[in-house]
Design goal:
eight-stranded mixed β-sheet; single chain; five-stranded antiparallel β-sheet
Amino acid sequence: MPGNPLIDSTHDPELRSWVDSANGHPEFPVQNLPLCIFAQEGAGPRGGVAIGDQLLDLRALASSGLMSGNELALIETAAAPTLNSYCALTAADRVRLRKILSNLLSDLKSPLRSHTDSLFVALDAVSFEMPATVGDYSDFFAGIHHARNAGRMFRPDNPLLPNYWHVPIAYHGRASSIDVSGKGFPRPVGQTAAHGSTTPHFGPSKRVDFELELAIWIGGGNRTGEPIPIDKASDAIVGFGLLNDWSARDIQAWETQPLGPFLGKSFYSTVSPFLVTVEALAPFRRGMPSRGEGEPAPMAYLWDELDQQIGVFDCHLEVLISTEKMRAAGAEPVVLTEASGKDLVWTPAQMVAHHTVTGCNLRPGDLFGTGTVSSPGPKGHGSMLEMTEGGRVPLTLPNGEQRSFLEDGDEVIMRGWCEAEGYARIGLGEARGTVGPSLPYSD
């Protein structure tokens, strides 16, 4: 992107890696270098870097004797069993580490080339752990099209409440039930009530839904009582991934009178295993569209000219579904929706500035969700709530199955990538999760 001061030699589309599978890889070319935490049988969690169809084992690299000084110290930080210490690095040190890794994986004279057997492992031969230990999780409501679509179901003439254009609305979620991609969870059980009823009943949720979101990994850095100003807020953002904020719509509808989401959200959330660094995403930054008539400008503490020019991330997002019947027939997952990370009304930096304006301290490894990302039109809906108009209009899958909401055995797959003319395409990985039957309960 012309004029973007964050683009450097590591983004050069002509850059090639001596790891052959990285060249032309749709997700993990040398221009990406996402971090993750992985494990193998007999070897505990440690940091890795995805490159093509391989992982560079950072713990093995740190102990190889090939690195020294400040370079070794940075490698050791990213090699730890979680990426919390990496998240605590300064923006300058994160840039240094990226350049070190880029040089090691692109330079034909790299010392790593003669140690591939000990330093690399196949991506499909490992299990992934959570990228970081999440201390706190806040989920925003920045998807303007989702907000409008959901609001119309309850307030057809006034879908957006008056505060929507003034406040980056969010709720504080449950960090303990966030898990890495590839796992299942039991259908949540709780209280629900028919629309308009004041008498609830207890049982499994009948309206389990997905929410397509971007995950934002936070570096923190502010002490209690010290806000992060908007012009410094970007430095507190470490990386991005995918997030499925699973929702039990019927439990949520009953319990959010009058407070916010609780059990309808806290039962499970799925995050992709890769922390795609904010530095890797520099070529895909875009400007925030101007607000229209009747849409007030953000307050001064949320306004920064540079953030308005390059604070939005152009990520293509999609959601697929695979049902038990489809898998039994050998059918491939089908795409339910496609959306864009550009369709958010608040930038990640604005989220950071607002979250801390009261003095709330963020900590390395905290996680933000953007809120459901929906794009205009029925093919851009980021949740089944929108796709089926609250369950009233079931969708029909290619094999004839119908869904108002998710059923047991349904696997939801979220994928994301960024591409732009003049730059290599990079991927965000996948966030997969499967709805299982509810656990035994007693009413």
